[in-house]
Give the backbone structure.
Amino acid sequence: MPAVIEMKGISKSFPGIRANDNINLKIEQGEIHVLLGENGAGKSTLMNILYGLYQPDEGQIFIKGKPVAIINPNVAISHGIGMVHQHFMLVQPFTVTENIILGKEPRKGTTLDLDKAIKDVEEISRKYELKVDPRAVVQDISVGMQQRVEILKTLYRGAEILILDEPTAVLTPQEIEELCVILRSLVDQGKSIILITHKLKEVMSMSDKVTIIRRGKVIDTLNTKDTNIDELAEKMVGRKVSLTVEKKEAEVSAPILEIKDLRVLDKRKLEAVKGIDLQVNGGEILGIAGVDGNGQSELVQAITGLSKAEAGEILLNGKEITNLTPKEVIASGVGHIPEDRHKRGLVLGYSLSENSILGSHYLKQFRQGLGLNYHKIREYCRRLIKEYDIRTPNERVLAKSLSGGNQQKLIVAREIDRDPSLCIASQPTRGLDVGAIEFVHKKLIELRDEGKAVLLVSLELDEIMDLSDRIAVMYDGRIVGILDAKDANEKKLGIMMAGGSAQDAV
Amino acid sequence: MEGIGIFTILGIVVTASIRSATPLIFAALGGNFSERSGVFNIGLEGIMTVGAFSAVFFSYKTGSPWAGLLGAMVVGGLFGLLLAFMSIYFKANQVIVGTAINILAASLTTFLLVEIWGRPGQTDNVEYFKAVGPFNLFTYLAFALVIVSYYVMYKTPFGLRVRAVGEHPRAADTLGVNVYVIRYICVIISGVLAGIGGASLSIGSMSLFKEGMIAGKGFIALAALIFGKWNPIGAALACLFFGFAVALETVATNLPVPREFLYALPYIMTMFAVSGFVGRSVGPAAGGIPYEKGEK
Amino acid sequence: MESGMNEFKEGLLNTLKEIAYPLVAIFISVIAGGILVYSFGNDPIVAYTAMIKGSLGDWNKFGETLVTVTPLILTGLSIAFAFKCNLFNIGVEGQFIIGAITAVWAGWALAGLPAILHLTLTLLAGAAAGGLWASVIGWLKAKVGSHEVINGIMMNYIAMYTSNFLVRTALNIPGKAYSVEIADTAKLWRFSQAFEQFKHSRLHIGIIFALIAALAAYYILNKTVRGYEIRAVGLNPHAAEYGGISVRKNIILSMIVSGLFAGLAGAIMTTGVQYRVNNLFGFTGYGLDGIAVALVGNNHPIGVILSAFLFGVMQKGGPLMQIQGIPKEVVGIIQGIIILFVAANFVKVVMENIKRNRDLKRAAVNEEVE
């Protein structure tokens, strides 16, 4: 029986980069097949081609042995291909039902038949055991339900082959197990599933076959049960990778950051941080673990002055910094590597030198008379480029022309060079390749060894466990537990991330 | 005797308000389609201008106001197409393109005015739509279109897709909805409606085109749309409110305020409406942002 | 010192690069205008020659052209400055009107002061009035997020009626539809008073002030901390806020500075040319022209100067074109087309498409080596 999907010789280029280079891929009926690769390896591009969002420059696609030209998502859908994207494609003000039927709406004459739509949604929800509330508005439902809605979108259109792009990024360890069960159940009902991920553990637990992609090329295709994590890591990166971080024992000193009963509201004026007590000492890395959306972002924003603290106190080296302006907070000695480097961390339209002084731009060292001393500013940037190994032709290019990894290096350089007492690192390695990740981790550990305080907020549990000396878990705006790193394991943290307490985990 | 006097005045004010609101309603409904699909149409003023002019021109050439109306719709649609093309294909800044259309419309109409009638200022009188009952055809058409717009936007699949495209175009794209086509259609519709709005001014209550006759109504219509929270019925009510302010000018010559204040009143009210002093409103999330296929 | 020379060379290169695209757009629009003229049965060469002769034919005509260029530089700067903070100050027309009427008041009410003081105060009053008028728009945007385009247009109308009100009442000449005239001590010095060549033109030293304003704008935007902050807010308000920059303060400040330029334009119009203000039946047009000037000048102060000169030439050449049988409204249409081309970044988009195709071919051939 021919493979349900075969992609032969697929190549695709974008300006300056060859995203897919002569890729061959075979998906068999009823298997869970993982595409494994680092960020930027080309996995999403390949699947976007399969789903008709991009057109390949070369190559052909066969479905059940027949060649097809998938020129847009409608064609892909008609062939039974459905895709759940990494960042959910849900219209926030619409209901669950409206999101599912969009583009394939049941009609009564010229009118939208919403009653039939709700009935249809309830039916497939029952059939595949994916619990959703058809009338709920998407912006009010949980992340777990949103993912089920995304899966239902594909099943509503009769998908036989489901593509899921980084589905576990937003889930707790327990929710990942539940997803595993859902996927196995779908496979039992005859579906085939393609998973895109860079997470080695999930490959081992969730898949039947794995294809490793590196720099746009297929490296190998293996049966999951015939391989192991270390082999996969090496194939993924191209060299031996040490999966643990080297660090010596922490030499902890006096507390640098102290937070008492902090309360912060989110964008919708609801409480996102519900009374937090926290302390970060000099010479340690405190990691905050938790699923996205449990108040971590708001916590960081309150400390850095970007959001208002409704109640509570924040002290830095004993001095109160609650509700100071961002400018004053920076001047007090706080460095901040923001979670969204394009939104917060850089002015993409500015040159590297102009970005290198963001936050310090008003200081005397960069001034000359009434104006700025661009000579000194460029000199400063050149030093940062050298010391932090930022790959760029010079300091005058615009920040937007740098790769993600080098952009992050510039931000890290800028924040660390200011010699802060406290450095907040929010998702510092998101979207970076292994080399850049190693670099950032090294710098954070260096900071901690110099006696500074580091507050690490990350959605990657591995990163938290590797780097932190102590780990705090945030759930629903509260700290549900703080553990020493050596007492922490994935199971305990997973339970706390889902709202259980440290005791439940024993 | 006094009681009757008050009702008469009230009646005059109400009918005057509805008449003043009519061109605003067309423009606001047009703006609604455009903005709901994610394209900010600030060129409504210019399209109303060319619509008003075209209505007079075609009525002049054929002697029939119906030809004028049709001409206004076609020309309005063409200018809408121009705006759509610039905003969608060239991904130009929509506010600048709209402004360019406003400038172009003013120059073009003056140019043609001089070419055809030999003098600047205003055209000759042409055949126009006389009133049927207290209002002319345009007013009845406006209210009918409010209901049609509401139905289309909230009760049809097309309306669902338009709203999706305006909130999260990529989500719609991944489900096979053609974002570009929907935006083109909506912006052209907004041009057609704004054209009718202009015609309602030149061959509705009047019978000629005068330079500067639109006098900011295209912008007031946008404010009404924001005030009405991007809902056809809300926008129409807001237009009535602004129409009331314009109508005050005619009735209130006896009031102890300087007449310039009354002239300025609609504009002052617009500022209050738009600045959220009368309730906040948030527009379509993807408004004003050109859509790029395949962005990571 | 070598680095100083390099810096200058680089600044020059950057400036040239910035004005390259608009220059090409102008070229294309001139062609388009020529086609338009031709299609109405006139000779484009005759039309354009008449235009150049009418604006630059002799010293007096040149002087008159500069009279038109002066307010265009300032309104262009006004718009360009606001654009650097990502604000579209379409309210420049209203700020111009308020500046003009305020200058009339100061020029008339403060009579009796020594000339230099009186003139300075008058100009400052006009500029400040424009700045104040614009600050309302800035404050509404910063505090409530209210769109500056709609508020700007509304305040244009309000300004027009306010001016008319004052002309009719406080600054009134009984029986006339225009205001009182400003005292001689508030009038700008005219070149005709010392130079024979400019005897028949109204050219005044306002042109010098406008050029100084442009240089000041360039310096503020590119060489000061405040300029760094304004541009950062314009490019990415989130990153600016993260970097400790107050987004609100800079939005309001940009609008005020923008309004200062526009108000100054109106004040110079009053003190240099009109000496009074008429009852307005419509807008002066300097505001809308300023938009065109700024766009074509790519929002760069030097580009604005060149662009203002171009538009001045077009407008002053109009009447002579008229005499040759070509309606002067063609100038307005060409202006509109220019704006459309520039707004579309027509040249940039086409160039980028060409570049992208070239890069695709190149990437397919090479291997990317890190």
Notes: The mean pLDDT of chain B is 87.
